[in-house]
Amino acid sequence: MTETQTPVEAVGTARPTLLEARDLHVGFPSRGRRARAVDGVDLAIGEGEIVALVGESGCGKTTLARTLLGLERPTSGSVLYGGTALEYGSKALKAYRREVQLVLQDPMGSLNPRQTVYEAVAEGPRIHGLPGEQEVVASALSRAGLRPPERFFLRYPHELSGGQRQRVVIAGALALEPKVLIADEPVASLDASVRGEILALLLRLRDELGLSALVVTHDLGLAWNIADRVAVMYLGRIVESGPVEQVLTAPRHPYTQALLSVLPESPERVVLTGEPPDPTRIPGGCRFHARCQVLASGRAAEAGVDGRCRAEPLAVLPAVPTAQAACHYAAAVD
Amino acid sequence: MALLELDDVSVTYRIAAGEVPAVRGVSLTLDAGTALGVAGESGSGKSTLAMALLRLLPRDARVGGRILLDGEDVLAMKWGRLRAVRWAEASIVFQGAQHGLNPVQRIGDQIAEPLLVHGLAKPDSARGRVAELLEQVGLPAWRARSYPHELSGGQRQRIMIAMALACSPRLIIADEPTTALDVMVQAQVLTLIKELLAERGISLIMISHDLSVLADVCDRLAVMYAGRVVEHGPSREVFHDPKHPYSAALAAAFPTVGDPVSRLAPKGLGGDPPDPMDLPPGCSFHPRCPVALDVCPTLDVELWPAGPERRAACVHVRPEKAEPAETTLEVS
Lengths: 334, 332
Fold this sequence. Notes:
The structure holds two protein chains of two kinds. By secondary structure, chain A is α/β, with parallel strands linked by helices. Chain A has 15 helices and eleven strands. Chain A has a single domain (7-333), classed as 3-Layer(aba) Sandwich (Rossmann fold), CATH 3.40.50.300. Chain A has helices at 7-11, 61-68, 90-99, 107-110, 117-127, 133-143, 162-174, 192-209, 220-226, 244-249, 254-261, 293-296, 299-302, 306-311, 328-333; strands spanning 17-30, 33-46, 50-54, 76-81, 84-85, 100-103, 180-184, 212-217, 229-234, 237-243, 324-325. In chain A, the strands form two sheets. In chain A, strands 6-7-8-3-9-10-11 form a seven-stranded mixed beta sheet, with helices on both faces. In chain A, strands 2-1-4-5 form a four-stranded antiparallel beta sheet, with helices on one face. Chain A is globular and about 65 Å long. Chain B is α/β, with parallel strands linked by helices. Chain B has a domain at 2-89 and 169-273: Rossmann fold (3-Layer(aba) Sandwich), CATH 3.40.50. In chain B, 29% of the residues lie in helices and 23% in strands. Chain B is built from nine helices and twelve strands. Chain B has helices at 46-53, 79-88, 107-117, 123-136, 153-165, 183-200, 211-217, 235-240, 245-253; strands spanning 2-15, 18-31, 35-39, 61-69, 72-73, 90-93, 171-175, 203-208, 220-225, 228-234, 304-305, 311-312. Chain B has an eight-stranded mixed beta sheet, with helices on both faces. A four-stranded antiparallel beta sheet of chain B has the order 2-1-4-5, covered by helices on one side.
C-alpha cells in the first residue's frame, strides 16, 4: 500500500478526509456500446460527515457508491480510505468492509425471509470472526433502536414492520463497528411516518459514534434533513457540490435548479423534458446542454457562453468542501 | 352533483385467524371534475378502499355500506354491468407500473385491448385511437410498436395512464402513481395528470403516503388511519394547517427544502401502525399521539367540524358539549 497525501487536507477542510474518490472512472459494456457510468469524479467524505449524493436514475450514483464499497473496480482512478488506495485482493477487501458498510434499500429484499433477526445481524460478525457474538448482536440492535434487543432475536422479517426491518438492516451494518455507512436510498421504500425515524437514527449514529455516511438518494428533502454536504450528479459527473444550506437554497447549476423547482411547494417549475440521460451517449460540450433550460431560454446566449455550452467540456470539480458548480453560465454571471 | 358517494363503507378480510377490519366506516363524496387525495401509511386501509370502489378485492373480503357511482350502487351491480363500468366509467392506475404490463406484448396491443373488449373500436380503427392516446400522455405514436422493457419507468407509467384513459372514463383511481419514480419523472407524470384533469374534466381519486404530492394535485384530502378517515378538508389547508396530530406527522415527514425548522431535524412518528385485529381502545391513534390527553384511551372521537369544510377526528378539535357531527361528509 502506498501512502498518498490527500489534496483536500492541503485545501483545508474542517474534517479530515476519510473516504475519497479520485479521478474515478467506471465503465461497462452496454448493448454493444460503452456506458460511462462514472465519468470522472473527485469526491471526499470527511470523518463524521454526512454527504448526500443526489441524482436521477441512471446518473451513476449507485455505481459510484458500489465502487466506493469495493464492489466494482474502477476503469481508472482510485478509491482512497484513510489516504491509502484501496486494494482489490480478497483479504484487503475483507478488512476494508469492516470499515465501510453498505445499507441497502428495500429491507424486504435484502433480508433473508427464513433467517431470524439474530442470524441476519450475526452474519457479518461471524464472517469476520468477532468474539462475543451475542453481545455484538445485542448492542448493534439496540444502537439501531430495537430495544430491548433480546425481544427481537428470534423474530422473522415478516413479523416486523417496515421501519423495524430497515433498523435490522442498519444493525447488520453496525455490528462490525464500521467508520463509514454507505446507504442507497435508505428510506425510499418506507412509509412517511417511519422515514423521519430512520433519518433521525442516521443523525444520532453520527453524533454518538462519529460515523461518516454517504447517502445515495434522489430525494432532496432527505439531503436537507440530514446531510452536511450535497453532491449533485448528472451523467457520470458531479455537476454541483457544497454545503447543503448553500447548494439547496441558492443552487447555481441549472440542473440543481430544475431538481429543486419540481419539489411540491416551489413557486416556478422547470420540468425537464426529453429522455432520461443515457450514459452510453454522453453529449459533447457541457453534458447537460441538451436539456438545459438556461441554454434553451437564451440566457446563456445573452451571457455569451452558448457556444462554449455546446462545444467546450467542463473540468472535473475538485474534492473541496466549498460550494462549486460545473457550468459555463454560472461561471460567467458570477 | 356527486359522481361518487361512499356511505359508511367497511371492508373486512376473513382469514384463518379471524376477521380483519381493514376499512371501518368511511363516508366520502367526490364531485364530478374534482380530485380527492387519500393519504395514509401501509395498513391504513387506503388501497383496500380504492380496490373496493370497483369491487377488485379478493373473495375473502366482505364489503359493507354503499358505494354509489353516478347514483348506481356498485356493490349491487350484476357481473356484466360491473364489467362495463370498469374501464368505461372508472378505471384504475396501480402502483408499480413496471409489473402491470405484459412483457411479451407490444404496447399498442395492450392499450387497444380494453377498446376491443368493450366494443369501442374495431381492430382497424383501434390503431388510430392508440396513437391518439399515446399523444395525450406525451409519447410518440411509434411507441405503440415497442415492448415494455424498451421503455423507462416514467414512460411505462404514462402507458398505464393511457390505458386508463382508453375508454374515456369519468373517474380515474390512481394508487401511488408516482411512488417508484424519480423526482423529475414524478414531476412530468404529475403535470400530465393535472393537465388531463383540467382539459378533460376527469375526476380523480389519488392514493399516496406523500401528503405534499397529494396537496399539489388534489382539491381535497382525506387522511386515513387504522381504517378510518381521521381528517378531511381542502388539501392545502390540511397540508399546511393539519388539525389531527396524525396528519401533522405525515405533513412534517416531507420537509420543505429551505425551511430552517427541518434542517438537520427529520421528523418522524414513533411506534408502529396498529394491528387491525387488535386495535387500541378509545382513539386508535392515542399510543403514538404526541398530544394525547387522559381521555384518549377511552374516548373514540368521530369526525367533528374543524373549520369551514373541514373535519377532524380528534378530541382537540371537539368543543365541550358540542352536538355530534353528521356522519356523512359534504364535499364541495
